[in-house]
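Below is just one:
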Amino acid sequence: MADFSNIIDQKSIPSSPTSEMELLGSTSLFDCHFDGGEVVSRDEMKLKYYLYQDKVITYKNEDKLKGAVILDDVLLRVDEVPLIKLYKKYDTPPDNMYLKVPCIPKNNPWHFNCKNSMRREIRNLTEIKHPNIPKLHGYREQDGYILGLYIDKYDITLEDLLESKVDFDRNKFFAKLCEIVKSIHKQGYVHADMHELNIMVKKGNLDEPFLIDFDSAEKIGTKTSRQSKYLCEYRVKTFTENIDNDYLVDIKKLLGIDEQDEEVKKPDVVKPAIAASNA
């Protein structure tokens, strides 16, 4: 696990961003506290990350200093992941792609392994192939560090789609999602983090889902102890297809699909995994 106990003395870093800093990116992450893993509201979660000398500095609302950590604790170097050299290094950000930045915790007691998260995302997007999952196009690099991955961009999360009350074919949507998951299983992987924020659509076709966020995916049969990005706890588990199948049950309920609808009630997908999934 990365050691986040070595937080940089805040007196040694600027109190606000400067033009000399390189913007790493922005993200929304759940905070982690000692009182049972309480989460904070989304508005309070928004941070921006900057590089400054050998540190990553986080700012809330662009100007309020949150903290800083040593780069080598949270960012992968290009030479640590030979696989990344198969992809293009972009010096100019492409407009038609999304930059996925490293998952950097806000609290030093959290001990989430950012580097392993990025390493898994690179491996998984290289090995798992499907038209409805992001394609890895390249990466952003500075001073030998991987600052983010350029992947396919989508428009709307399932959560936002449902909140908008826009009509779409929910049965067709769910059937396609099941097909995507089944394909991932046949390739020997489990997504393991399927929810309404990790399922997206494009504006031109709301009936077709795209499954994103592959930093949690693992090979079927892997047994590991990994801390959740969102809770102060370690989860020791064996990665099986049933993890995704449980998520599918939840998504089906979220979509409000009739349980008696035989079109989407596919035993080889929403029930415990078939043996062929390991093929």
